[in-house]
């Protein structure tokens, strides 16, 4: 069931919310001190609303839960990547994967806070599935591009090695010298 009104923390202006988040990340700042500092900022900027210690505490607890889920997800992902030997190809793949991870956690957070209605949940889930499918296709395309590039490099090296062999023999190089040059060229392609 959806909440009737947003919390005082959710109603904070974005810049003040960012300041609260920074204060809560600082281990030297207590929640009580953060509450006082945010209320002082609100007063200085002429805002009528204030935040309570309990609202700050609920927000901090919720953010810690989200952070913990994110840390667990990353640990599980790293474990499977290491176990299966999968390596995302390139920065685009990393970016898309990070976006999907973030969206998944935002969705989970909204579900925990009951901010989604029964009508909106199927659309959000469909969007997440579509994004996941897109990420999978991008990773597959990137992997195919890497394989194709390796095949092109190998073919070029083989042609260069063959050309080196004929030029080397014409120039009077020994068979060992020609072979050493060919090995070097072919070794670069691997």
List the helices and strands and how they pair.
Elements: H1 14-25, H2 31-44, H3 53-84, H4 90-112, H5 120-170, H6 175-188
Helix pairs in contact: 1-2, 2-3, 3-4, 4-5, 5-6
Question: How big is the Rg?
Answer: 29 Å
Strands, count = 0
- Contiguous low-pLDDT stretches (5 residues minimum) are 84-88
Order of helices and strands: HHHHHH
In DSSP terms (H or I, runs of 4 or more residues), the helix count works out at 6
Largest sheet report = none
Compute the average pLDDT.
77
**Secondary structure category:** mainly alpha
Global geometry = elongated
As an assembly, this protein is single chain
End-to-end distance? 59 Å
Beta-strand residue percentage:
under 5%
- Give the helix level as a range of percent: over 70%
List keywords for this structure.
mainly alpha, elongated, 190 residues
Note down, in words, how this protein is organized.
The protein is mainly α and 190 residues long. The chain has a domain at 1-86. Helices cover 77% and strands 0% of the residues. It contains six helices and no strands. The protein has helices at 14-25, 31-44, 53-84, 90-112, 120-170, 175-188. Helix 1 runs antiparallel to helix 2, helix 2 (31-44) packs across helix 3 and helix 3 (53-84) packs across helix 4. The longest helix has 51 residues, at 120-170. The radius of gyration is 29 Å and the shape is elongated. It starts with 13 loop residues before the first helix and ends with a helix.
């Amino acid at each position: 069931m959806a909440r009737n009104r947003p919390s005082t923390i959710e109603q904070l202006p974005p810049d003040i919310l960012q300041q609260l988040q920074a204060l809560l990340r600082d281990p030297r700042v207590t929640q009580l001190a953060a509450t006082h500092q945010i209320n002082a900022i609100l007063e200085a900027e002429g805002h009528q609303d204030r935040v309570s210690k309990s609202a700050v505490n609920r927000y901090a607890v919720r953010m810690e839960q989200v952070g913990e889920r994110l840390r667990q997800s990353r640990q599980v992902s790293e474990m499977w990547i290491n176990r299966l030997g999968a390596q995302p190809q390139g920065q685009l793949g990393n970016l898309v994967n990070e976006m999907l991870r973030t969206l998944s956690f935002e969705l989970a957070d909204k579900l925990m806070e009951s901010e989604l209605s029964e009508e909106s949940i199927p659309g959000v889930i469909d969007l997440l599935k579509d994004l996941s499918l897109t990420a999978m296709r991008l990773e597959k395309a990137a992997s195919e591009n890497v394989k194709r590039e390796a095949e092109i490099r190998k073919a070029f090296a083989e042609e260069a090695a063959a050309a080196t062999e004929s030029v080397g023999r014409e120039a009077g190089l020994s068979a060992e010298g020609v072979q050493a040059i060919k090995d070097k060229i072919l070794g670069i392609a691997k």
